[in-house]
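Renewal narrative, Specific Aim 1. Our central claim is that a sequence can be written position by position from structural information alone. The example that follows is taken directly from our test logs and has not been curated for this report. It begins with the structure tokens describing the chain, in the order in which they were read.
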């Protein structure tokens, strides 16, 4: 026998709809009021707190720690002909669109929201090329392999152990500082080969240009990383700041 009660009332969010209140506190107020609901776990942050993932930017880290391995798997699965290109593109666009929407809605979840949003926008635009020109599909996949390094970057903030740090630096140097500059050369050759057939003014010229922009971004982030490390070596007390968002 299941007992029911007509007096049952669903939990109320008790949101204050006044414009002044919403303008004063923004989405943080809505999140705080939602935590007032009476569920067995008071909020998602309570569930993530034991893992060190409670908080705005850490919740975003948790999202990436879960979703990036799926994208990385699809990258290597396509390289080894396990999945179709269409399946890979669907997963890639879903990730970048969702992550960019998150950053736009909650800019505080990352350290440089403008750079991240710009990077994701440029990535999604550049992915249009291989959809219509299969000759560069492998090159695009090689570019997106950088998300493996991004995953190690986030994991390193959550679980700072020597093995993760080694994987982070090895993948940073090999992908961002070696693969990316090399792809400028490869995509430049593809542009030249096409230009010989159709003329030098064609949209393939954007390939080495966009790749150069990505490479310059990687150089900038490398310089920032080196500067940050120098600051930490000079003042070990700043080490805790490494746990902030990218």
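The sequence written for that structure reads:
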């Amino acid at each position: 026998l299941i007992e029911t009660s007509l007096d049952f009332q669903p939990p109320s969010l008790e949101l204050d709809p006044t414009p002044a209140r919403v303008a004063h506190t923004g989405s943080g107020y809505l999140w705080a009021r939602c935590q007032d609901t009476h569920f067995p776990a008071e909020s998602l942050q309570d569930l993530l707190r034991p893992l060190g993932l409670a908080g705005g930017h850490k919740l975003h880290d948790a999202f990436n720690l879960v979703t990036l391995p799926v994208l990385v798997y699809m990258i290597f699965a396509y390289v080894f002909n396990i999945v179709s290109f269409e399946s890979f593109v669907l997963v890639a666009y879903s990730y970048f669109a969702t992550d960019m929407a998150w950053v736009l809605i909650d800019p505080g979840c990352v350290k440089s929201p403008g750079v991240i949003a710009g990077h994701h926008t440029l990535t999604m635009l550049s992915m249009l090329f291989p959809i219509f020109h299969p000759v560069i599909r492998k090159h695009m996949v090689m570019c997106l392999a950088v998300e493996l390094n991004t995953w190690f970057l986030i994991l390193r903030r959550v679980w700072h152990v020597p093995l993760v740090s080694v994987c982070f630096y090895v993948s940073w140097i090999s992908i961002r500082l070696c693969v990316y500059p090399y792809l400028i050369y490869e995509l430049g050759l593809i542009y030249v080969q096409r230009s010989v057939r159709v003329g030098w003014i064609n949209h393939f010229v954007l390939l080495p240009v966009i790749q150069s922009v990505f490479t310059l971004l990687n150089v900038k982030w490398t310089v920032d990383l080196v500067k940050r490390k120098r600051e930490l070596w000079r003042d070990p007390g700043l080490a805790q700041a490494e746990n902030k968002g990218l």
